[in-house]
């Protein structure tokens, strides 16, 4: 299968207005002008009609992640590959495809229960991105072909879930880390797989060995084009009293300069710049023992 990017996320929220304020006033995204006035919140960052859809619901969580396929032929091939692998899926209605601004869409879940949507034919509205905070742009590639950023998803069944993404969906390995949080030699620790799809971004998806994650997400990442925007955003976060989940730092594996903040969804958002873009034909996957060159002191917010 030839997944091209992480195209969008759909977030369930008990109070979408909080995401509207967070998305525009803190992240610097704009309200998507081409999306319907249907009570949901849609946030735009590039040539695509939206990248974040926040829908009213009974809990706060990541509802699903949208993965982009190249064409209708690839979409039809994906159905055959999923059937051959014994993976259940549902071809969704034209109404849902229209709501997502795509030509065709199917829904499925990975072995750890993370909801996915595979789609083809994403629209480009070429509406000018005008950030309410003056951000010049986000790194999403040509016509948005690198996707909006990356997602780190919880994987209670890490081995099976990693195999699903690599063997069935066709993701490639970028890096692997393993964490132990106490000195007990019997502690098995937790694994973290970083994976890329068919674009230069170091990873569009990562899987963290997490058995207790009620919000369906560890963190999402957006990447701005200018270093100073990371600092400006950090100032906005501090002024608004939003918990900082991780201090400013630079990662080892993708060289991202970033910090992490709490979101209204109960998971974190990484706001960064300068992530590696790689030639996968000549890349050798790595195993990294140090997550950051400097900084990135993680601290979970109270409550």
How many strands in all?
18
Mean pLDDT: 96
Question: What is the CATH T-level topology?
Answer: 2,3-Dihydroxybiphenyl 1,2-Dioxygenase, domain 1
Strand order of the largest sheet: 17-10-11-12-9-13-16-15-14-18
Radius of gyration, Cα only, in angstroms?
18 Å
**Elements, N to C (H/E):** EHEEEEHEHEEEHEEEEHEEEEE
Q: Quickly count the helices.
A: 5
Name the CATH class. Answer: Alpha Beta
Into how many domains do the coordinates divide? 1
What general form does the structure show? Answer: globular
Family: Belongs to the extradiol ring-cleavage dioxygenase family.
GO molecular function, one term: dioxygenase activity
Domain VOC: 5-121, 147-274
Cofactor: Fe(2+)
Nutshell version of this structure?
InterPro entries: Glyas_Bleomycin-R_OHBP_Dase (IPR029068), Glyas_Fos-R_dOase_dom (IPR004360), GlyoxalaseI/FosfomycinResist (IPR050383), VOC_core (IPR037523), Xdiol_ring_cleave_dOase_1/2 (IPR000486). The protein has helices at 16-27, 72-84, 94-100, 158-168, 227-240, and strands at 3-13, 30-31, 41-44, 52-56, 61-69, 90-91, 104-109, 115-120, 149-154, 172-179, 190-196, 205-208, 219-224, 244-251, 257-262, 268-273, 286-287, 292-295.
């Amino acid at each position: 299968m030839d997944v091209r990017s992480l195209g969008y996320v759909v977030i369930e929220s008990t109070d979408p207005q909080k995401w509207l304020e967070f998305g525009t006033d803190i992240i610097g995204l704009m309200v998507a002008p081409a999306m319907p006035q249907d009570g949901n919140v849609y946030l735009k960052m590039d040539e695509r009609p939206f990248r974040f859809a926040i829908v009213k619901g009974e809990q706060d969580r990541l509802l699903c992640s949208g993965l982009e396929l190249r064409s209708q032929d690839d979409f039809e091939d994906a159905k055959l590959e999923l059937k051959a692998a014994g993976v259940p899926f549902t071809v969704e209605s034209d109404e849902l495809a229209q709501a997502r601004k795509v030509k065709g869409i199917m829904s499925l879940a990975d072995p750890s229960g993370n909801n996915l949507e595979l789609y083809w034919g994403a629209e480009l509205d070429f509406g000018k991105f005008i950030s309410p905070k003056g951000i010049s742009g986000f790194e999403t590639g040509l016509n948005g072909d690198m996707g909006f950023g990356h997602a780190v998803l919880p994987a209670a069944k890490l081995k099976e879930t990693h195999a699903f993404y690599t063997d069935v969906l066709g993701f490639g390995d970028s890096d692997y880390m393993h964490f132990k949080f106490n000195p007990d030699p019997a502690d098995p620790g937790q694994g973290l797989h970083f994976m890329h799809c068919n674009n230069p971004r170091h990873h569009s998806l990562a899987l963290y060995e997490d058995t207790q994650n009620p919000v369906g997400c560890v963190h999402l990442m957006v990447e701005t084009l200018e270093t100073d925007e990371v600092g400006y955003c950090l100032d906005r976060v501090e002024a608004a009293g939003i918990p900082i989940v991780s201090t400013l730092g630079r990662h080892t594996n993708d060289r991202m300069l970033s910090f992490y903040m709490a979101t209204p969804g109960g998971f974190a958002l990484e706001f960064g710049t300068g992530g590696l873009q790689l030639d996968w034909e000549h890349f050798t996957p790595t195993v990294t023992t140090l997550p950051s060159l400097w900084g990135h002191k993680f601290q979970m917010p109270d409550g």
